[in-house]
Amino acid sequence: MRRYACPNCSNEVHFRNSECVNCHSRLGYVPAWDQMFYASPDDQLWHDGATAYKACANRQSIYCNWLVESDDEEEHCLSCRHTLVIPDLSSDENREHWAALEEAKRRLFYSIEKFKLGVGDLVHQPDTALRFEFKADTLTPDGKTTRVLTGHDRGLITINVAEADDPTREKYRKAMGEPYRTLIGHFRHESGHYYWDHLVWNTPKLDAYRAIFGDEREDYGEALKRHYEHGAPAGWEATHVSSYACAHSWEDFAETWAHYFHIVDGLETAGWYGLDGHTPDAGLKRTPGGWSDAGPYGAAEFRPLMDAWVPLTVAMNAMNRSIGLSDFYPFVLSDTIFAKLEFIHGIIHDRG
């Protein structure tokens, strides 16, 4: 995530901000330009030369600060329009959870835009577009709970809104023995399944994928059953980025895909704050204030990313320990995991 400033007064603002705390300008983000625009408190539109923008229809309800061109018939921003189902808003808790989910999704869409991956055409080819449903568990008349399972099905990503509740998510994290579980992690993981369908399946990359991640034709249901019954094999840390990645080839890919997004976005943030931890000759262009416009999202080579990432994580882990927190980055990346991450890098950047 890059660093932003209020375009009116130059005070630092953050990706989620809809108002500058210094000059009180109304802020709006345009993903196509990766820029914050401003309007006075009394203006209804934001302007960039000849182009005018309006607020996303969700600005008031969930504080979405993304903008839409004023002459666009669509009332929702690029991110919000891809949500097809939202939870029952008669519950204040559901509204808060929905807002948190959409904020995390906007960060996913930020990365998708930076990588130029595309999200499909909701109007003309909706069945192949990236879509989301945010649902809550429900009680049946007999008092039983019908659980909503987070997952992916041919481009449709369903997320249980309970994942937006910090105590609930932490409970799941501990119960499943995970070192890391976040909303943005869910979005990045599930999007990996979507992009596997578009970038790997039925392409020349499939054989190379199977050589690195294993054969996806293994029965998925049986693989998950085995994983939940017996757990990951001993020594899984040497070959997989998480224990869940051991469950099936598809899950290994999705976990690695999410991890690659973590790395690249983390490096972009570190660069903009002068914490990138790599030498000027590491092969990644940077400006005195941080990365260049392309930054790590546009890095042609994979290894320079890792040369920057590894020392940064060592330093951040040490920083966390110095103030009594758990490790910022509780992972160890082996050569095998490097190869998987490099495959992800390749299919993102070598799409022809």
From TrEMBL:
Domain Zinc-ribbon: residue ranges: 4-90
Top-level taxonomic group: Bacteria
Protein name per the record: Zinc-ribbon domain-containing protein
